[in-house]
Amino acid sequence: MKRALFLLFVGLLFSSTVKGQIKIGDNPQNIDAASVLELESDSRVLVITRINTTQMNAIVPSAGAIVYNTDLQCLHYYDGSQWINICEEVGGIPNLTTEPLVNTNSTLIITPNGENNHIEVAPNSIRSEQIVDGGINGDDIQDNSIGQSKIGNDAVGRNEIAENAVGLEALDTDEITLSNFSNTPGFITGANIVSTIAGNAITDNGGAYYSNTPVLNEIAVNEGDIATNTSSIQTNANEIALKEDAVNKSDNTALGNSPILFPTQNAVKTYVDTQIAGSAQTVVSGNTPNSIIPG
After folding, report:
1. DSSP 190
2. By Cβ atoms counted within 10 A, which residue in 55, 169, 171, 197 is the most buried?
């Protein structure tokens, strides 16, 4: 029985050698047809050669050899001329460079830190050529993220400021004075808004101010004059209406050479009687020509 088992073992070993396939671990009867060496286990792992950097560099194996560097705590493979740290290859990008291709200056830098490489924005590297029109809008800029020291003189012109973009609450009135503004021909200046006429209502007292008090005072005076004139006109109108009363008019053309109404003799008599009544003279009438006898 023992002999039979030994022959079976030798047969299996010989069969594996002939096929050039070896499987170690669980389910040895199931082996991948494309494998040379296959490991299968749910409780054990493959531990490859573990050596330090000095020991690793002393070995010149065939390309593809793999070891675990205990100094750097990472797998290394041999590419045919040198040992390559797999951790750096996996964590980085092969052939990575910061040299600009489209722009004129580099915006990124790679900073080594031990076994790590950090990709960072280069100082003072982002300029107008990297920012396209409309690339940065209000939603991309946090409140108070850009201070006065970051904005150069004349950096923001009239064309860069949208209508109503800057409100009154955003302006420090203590920092903006008339001395900050210079007007060129075609703009309103102090000479245009300040008159030399006495009593001018607009003055240049640190700014343009308007008072309507002089105008209102003048209007009040004129309204008094208008009221007086209106009363006088009404009085004159009443007197004219009395004198033009139809009772005192006649269309007798014998009184004149016009068909327009004229005062009648009765009206004339009334007027004369009124005038004589206030005098010391007496009017005497008779068949002879009338005469006036002094009283």
Report:
1. H
2. 55
